[in-house]
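Chain X:
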Amino acid sequence: MTESLQETAQISCDILIIGAGPAGMMAAITACENGADVIVLHDKPSPGGQIYRNVDNSPLPDANILGEDYTQGGELVARFNACSARVFSSASVWHVGDNGEALFSYQGTTQRVSALEIIVANGAMERPFPIEGWHLPNVMSAGAAQVMLKSDGIVSDDAVFIGTGPLLYLIVAQYLRLGVKVKALIDTTEKANYLKATQQLPKAFAQLGMMTKGLGLLNEIRASGTPCYRFVKDIQISAAEHAKPEQASQVTFQCANETVTLQADQFFLHQGVIPNLNITRSLGLAHHWNAQQLCWQPTLDNWGASSVPYISVAGDCSAIVGAIGAQNMGKIVALNLLYRLDRLKLEKRDELATRAMQDMQQLNRFRAFIDSLYRPRDIHRMPEKSSVVVCRCEEQNLAQLEQAFGEQASGPNELKLMTRCGMGPCQGRMCGTTVSELLAKWRNTGVANVGYYHLRSPMRLLNLEELAKLETVAPRSAQ
C-alpha cells in the first residue's frame, strides 16, 4: 500500500474483486468465510460470468438442456449471493491503480473504491479470427451466440458455425438440443493436430471425464445429421450476388480438395479463447507470451500474485484454465491474500490450498492436450491476403499494416501511431494479439520480442456527466 493511500484513511474494504465469474465468485466466498471485508464489481446484471451466465434465472423452459457443466454453476452462484460481499452489478470498471484504487461507472455516476488488495478476475475473450469477411454484418462470434441464448433465449436458425475447439462444439450441441437447425459445422482443426495431441494423452487421462464429454459432443452433432466439414481451410465469407453487398451471406472453403460454398444468413466464428488483458495491461503488470496457448498472459507466482504489489490475478484472465480451474484459482488467490492480511497463518493457508493446487496441476496437464489438439491454424491467426481486415474498429487491413511496417513501424505502438490500428473503442482487444504475431512473423523473431500495445485508462467509454458525479464507496463500518 502506498503512503498516500495510507494517509487518506479511506479504505473501502480489505479485498476488491473485479469480475463475478467462477474465479471472482469463489475468491469472494473464500475471503468472506474467513472474515475479510470484500467488494465485488462486475459488469453484468447478475453473477456467473460467461460460463454460468443467468444460471439462476435462465430464460429457457429447462436450463438442463444446456448441460451439467452449466447447471452445476447454480450452487456456486447461490453461495456467492449468500456471502457477505458487497456487490455492485452492472458496474463498468474503467481505471485501476496500483495504489489499491479503482474507478467505475455505476448508475450514471463515477464511484471510487479503495482496497488493501485487488483481485483481477475479468475472464477471457474469444480469440480474434481474422479471415476474409469476418468484419461483415451477419458474422459474429460463437460466444455471442451463447450470450444471446443464455441471456434472452434467442437463437439463430440455420446458421453456420466455423472454427475449432470444445466451446464451438458445445454451442452447436446446445442449439441442436433445443431443436434449432444448424446449417453446417465447418471444423478448421488441422489433421496433424490429432497426431501431435497424442503425445499429451498420458497426461490427459487424469481428466478422462472431460475427454469423454468432448467426444460425446462431437458424436451428438454427427448423430443429428448436421453436415460436418472437417480439416477445412481457405475460408472466405462474402456477400452473394443477390444479397446486399454489406451483409455476409455465403462462405466458401476448401474441404478434401474440393471447393464448397454454403449460403446462410448468420455465421458464428470461434477458435478458442485468450485472457482479457486490458486491465492487467493498463496496470503495467509484467506479461509474457505463452507459446502453448498462443496468447499473452500476466506473469504470476503460484498464488496469482503479479509484479505489482497488491494486485493478484485469477481465472481465465491469468491463463486459460476453464471454469473448474478458475474456481480453484479464485480460492488459491483468496487464501494467499488472507495470509497477507494476517487473517490466516502460513501453515493454514497452505493446508487449505493443497487440494486446489493439486487439482490445478491435473487440469494444466489436460490443458496441454486441449491446446495441442485445437491449436488454431497459423493463417487463421496471421492472415496472408492483403484485403483481410485486422483492426475492425479503424478498418485497417493487412495491406495497410504491411505498408506501415515497411515504413519502419516495427512495434505495435509505432504501428498504432501510423495506422490507428488499436485506437478504436475496443482498445486493441480484437487486433492486439494478431498484430503481435504478424510483427513477429515479419521481423522473423519471437512474439515475446515484439511486445504489445501500451494501454492507459480509461479502459471503458464514459461521459463527462458520469465523471463529474464522483462518489466514494464508504467502508462498511461507516454505512
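Chain Y:
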Amino acid sequence: MYKLYTAILKELRIMLRDKAALAVMFLMPVLLVVVITSIQNSSLKMINDNTVPMLVCNRDGGESSLQFIDALKKIGMFDLQKADSSITDKQLTDSMHAKDALIAVVVPQGFSSALKSKSQNITGKALTEFGMAVNTPQDSSSVKETPPVSMFYNPVLQESFRLSVNGALKSAQQFTENRAVLQALYQAMSNKKLPDSLEQQILNNKSSIDQIPTAKDGSRKIPNATQHNVPAWTIFAMFFIVVSLSTNVVKEKISGSFIRLKTLPTSFILNLAAKQITYIVVTLAQVLVIFSLGIFLFPHIALPKLVLPENLGSLFLVSLACGWCAVSYGVLIGVYAKSMEQAIGFGAVSVVILAAIGGIVVPSFAMPESLHLLMKISPLHWCMEAYNTLFLENGYVKNVLISLLPIFVIIVAMQLAAILGLKKQRLI
C-alpha cells in the first residue's frame, strides 16, 4: 500500500509541474462551458422568448392584406416594422440591413382581390353542393390565383429557424384565407355581414396541444441549456487529459523509466495503477469544478442554474466510469505513440472527432443516418448517454446501466490493448 501511495505522490508532483497541462485540463473546459452555454441559452431565448424583427411591405392595401398582417402580429413571434409600400425589392433589402431585420415580407398587389375571388368561388361551389346556390359559380379557370407572399431573409438565418418562420407565414395566410371564405359564405347565406363576435368564436375554436416532457422518474421538469451543456463539455474535458497523460507515458518510454522499473522491487502494474488513479482523481476534480460553476456561478451571469440529479450516488458512479474511460484512452494513446508530438497531435484531434460523432458537439438525434454506427463506437457517446439519463431524464443506476455496460467493455478493451502494446515493445 505504501508503494502505491508513493507512486501516486510521484505522479501528482509530475503533473503539478506541468502548468500548461493543468490549464488545458481545467481552464479550457471552464471557458468552453461558459461560452457555449451562453451562446446556446441566447439562441433558445431568441426562439422561445424574444421576437424576431420583421419588415412588412404591404403593396396591396386591401382588407385581406391587413388581416394577414394582423394574423402575423397575433402569432407573437415577430416584431413587425412597416416599410413603405412604394419601395423596390433592392431598397427593401437595404432597409433590412440598416434596421437589423432578419426577415422582410412583401404582400403583393392584387392579394386581396384574388383572395376575394377565390373565396367567392369556393362559396359558390359549396352552396351548389347544398342545393342553395343563387348564382352559378365561376369557372375555375377564370378565378385568379392568389399571388404568393414573398419572404426575404438574411443568409445567416439557420435553415431550421427559417423553416419555422415559413411555417408561421403559411399559418397566417391560411388563417386569412379561411376568414375570407367564412365571411363570403355567411354573406351569401344570410345576405348580412358576419358579426365580429361570431367570427372570432368560430376562428378561435381550436384545440390546444399540451407539450409534456416525460422523465424516467415521472417528473415533468423542462431541461435547459445548462443541463445539456455542462455534462457534455465535462466529458470533453475528461477526455482531453489525453494530452497530458499520453505525453507522460511517452516521456517515460523515451527516458527509459519503464525499463528501470524492472530493476526495482515493485511491479509495473502497480505504477500503471498509480498513474491511472491519479488521473481519475483529476477527472473527478474536473467534474467538481465544472458542476460547481453551473450551480454557483451561472445564476450570477444570467444563465440557468445546473440542477443535479436527486441520486448523487448514480452521478458519482457515472462520473467515475467516464473518468476511467478517459484515462484508459490516454494510456492507450501514450503506449502506441512513438513521440510526444504524435501523442499530442493524434490525441487532441481524435478526441475532437470522437466528440463530434459521439453527440457532444451535435446532438445524436440530429446526426445523419450514415454516422449512427460510428457514433456507437465513440466512448464519448456512451458517456453522454449516461449523463443525459441522469440530467435530462432523472434516471437511476438501473436506467444508466445500458450506457455504463458499453463504457466498461470499452475500458477493458483499451486496458488490454495497452498491456499488449507494452509487451510487444518489451517494456513489461
